[in-house]
Amino acid sequence: MSDIKEIQEEIVDEFSMFDDWMQRYEYMIELGKSLPIIDEKYKTKDNIIKGCQSQVWVRADFEEGKVIFTADSDAIITKGIIAILIRVFSNQTPEAIMNADTDFLDEIGLKDHLSPTRANGLVSMIKQLKMYAIAYSNH
């Protein structure tokens, strides 16, 4: 399994292939289609990420020392954003997730091209994924 830094670099490389933000948004929508979808029964208010404009559900399971994330969103761009984060953080150890930086999001220019409410939602998503990691770090 690739480490977090390698996955982040892959994502930066992929986004650098596109010349403009319309193409990047389209790519994010495509990435959203590959999201490991959360089981319907977990689409509860307990799994909703607070602070997101759209609805985003995230679930974390702990298997063989790794945190496995599944998610879904009712908005296509948001689904792409959470897909990127899950690609980076899923199948990693709690410690790796807790210690990971998210500078790669600045490198691809994501924060600059999101509305303020989506940017806040992005921060909330990252915070929630790291909270799951903290919760599992004692196992």
Automatic annotation (TrEMBL):
Pfam families: SufE (PF02657)
Domain of life: Bacteria
Domain Fe-S metabolism associated: 12-131
SUPFAM superfamilies (UniProt xref): SufE/NifU
InterPro entries to which the protein is assigned, alphabetical: Fe-S_metab-assoc_dom
Family: Belongs to the SufE family.
Protein name from the UniProt record: Cysteine desulfuration protein SufE
